[in-house]
Amino acid sequence: MTERPVHGPRPALPAPGTARDILVIELLGGFGDLLLALPALEALIAAHPHARMRVVTFLPGADLLAADERLDRVVAVTDHSGGSVRATVRAEITRRCPDLAVTTTRHSGIPRLLSDLGVAAVDDLWRGPPPDEPVDARFVRLLAADGVIDTASAELARARSGRLRLAATERLRGRASLAGALAGLGTLRGTDPRHLGASGWSGGLSKEGRPTGGHPPVILIPEAGMSIKQWPADRWRQLASRLLAAGWPVARLPSPEPPSAEPTVPRGKPRAEPWPPVAVLPASGLREAAGMFAALGERGGLVVGGDTGPCRLAAVMGVRTVALYGPTLATRYGLHRGWTVDLQGLPGCSVRRPTAITTQECWWSGCCPLDVSEPACLADITVQQVMDSVRHLCRSR
């Protein structure tokens, strides 16, 4: 079908149950942004059960939707430039003009393109945000306010919490991957296998995959994608050491820094302690990571991470998660689930702009104007606070 030219006003937004073709455009950037949009996608699917649903989003996030049989088509975008983004959206509308387009994206002229092509669209899901409403919940509320979903669909989306769909084989591989990691001596005891004899094993794993001490495994996610969103490296090392000393099996996701490397520090500053020898999980694709997180959730495990895609993915897959927030405001970008804790550093930061984070002085520069050595907001979160949150989540379920 060719794209239809504009003749007069744009079509009215379709009422719940009437759309036959819906195009969702999620091109904000990282796959964590796609996860924020999942409840809105769930609500649209519930409100328009007979619609063919298409999603345009960036890789690698597009891979996360691969097993969802409710979707007619997932268009994976690799080029983030404005011209490429517009061309991809235009091509998808030319392929089949939707009854409704919903976009979380306002950059690259996407709203203007939808208007020029005469597509009925919800194209401003960022309008007038308050500082205390979660972004994912607000997307759903605005869809309801615009009349394209009903109350029941909105409630269903909230109940499902945007959980991803995995094939049975992916869940099995996730369980095997996690079991292999937990069977590593370095993971269980915090000791390099070269320095651990049979006498150091101390009982190994129970049949549930926990060490005989009873604590579930904890996976750390130190990498945050942006330097301004990273908890200080020495805090991660201290947290790992304290967890290991308390008998928790600890592993971590890979990051550019070797797991046992001495951190580099400027001349004249004290050298930070190295990472304890916890296991580093093998690098994997997002679907493999989702399967591993699903298995971790089944075992009652926990994740600690920053405001980053992998941490949000763990929470989406049902893992008890402690998330650390600095430049972003947890009341807007937090995980907000019954099995998560959002820790906000420096709540009264004078630099933070809760409803316009990308305009903050620190955002693109990566430099905190309050502390030249590290983000003051994240440095405000202590290791003790994180330990207390881990114990709280462990007791709560």
Can you walk through the features of this model?
The protein has helices at 31-47, 82-95, 110-116, 135-145, 151-160, 168-182, 185-189, 233-245, 286-298, 309-316, 330-333, 376-379, 383-395, and strands spanning 21-26, 52-58, 71-77, 100-103, 121-122, 218-221, 250-252, 279-280, 302-306, 320-325, 340-344. Helix 4 packs antiparallel against helix 5. A six-stranded parallel beta sheet has the order 8-7-6-9-10-11, sandwiched between helices. Residues 1-7, 185-212 and 256-268 have low confidence and may be disordered. 34% of the residues lie in helices and 13% in strands. The protein has 397 residues and is α/β, with parallel strands linked by helices. The protein folds into two domains: 21-160, Rossmann fold (3-Layer(aba) Sandwich); 168-395, Rossmann fold (3-Layer(aba) Sandwich), CATH 3.40.50.
